[in-house]
C-alpha cells in the first residue's frame, strides 16, 4: 500500500519544455509554455501562473479531459493559448506588451484533486531586452578554418611521408635484388679469380 501511495503522489508532472529561460523584446508578446501529465487522469484540475512566486497572473480550472479550461482570474495582459482536449495538456499563456519590469520568474502550478490533491509546478525565467543581438560568429569561423586547415596540412604531410617511405623502400628492395643477382652470376666465361673458370692444376705424375 505504501508503494501505491508513493506512485500516485508522483503521477502528476509539470514541464515548461527543454529550457527554462526565454528572452523577449521590450513591447513584444512572449509565449510562456507549460504542459502537465497525469497517469490516472484529472477532475476539476486547478492551474495557476505566478510572477516571482507571489503575484498571480492567471488562474484557471479544467473539469475533465473532455472540456477546455475556463478562466477564474487573470492579469489583463495575459492570454491563455493552450488546450487540454487534445494529445497534450497544454496550459501555456502569452504575456502581451512585455515591459522591462516583467523580467523575472514565472511559475506554472497545477493541483489535481483526483490524485488526492497532488501538486506540482515548473518555473521559467523571462529576460526582457531592448533589441536582440546577433551573435558574431566571425572569430569562431576563423578558428574553425585555421584548425581545419592545419588538420588538412597534417593529413597531407602524413600522406606524402608514407609515399616517400614507400618509394625509398621499393628502391632499396630493388638494389638488394641487383646485389643478389650479381653475386649469383656464373663468371666462367670471364675467367675471374675465385670463379668457376678457375681450373684445377693437373695432378702431378
From TrEMBL:
Membrane topology per record: Single-pass type I membrane protein
Compositional bias of kind Polar residues: 180-190
Name recorded for this polypeptide: SCN4B protein
Phylogenetic placement of the source organism: Eukaryota, Metazoa, Chordata, Craniata, Vertebrata
Region Disordered, residue ranges: 177-205
Keyword Transmembrane helix attached: yes
One example GO MF annotation: sodium channel regulator activity
Keyword Endoplasmic reticulum in record: no
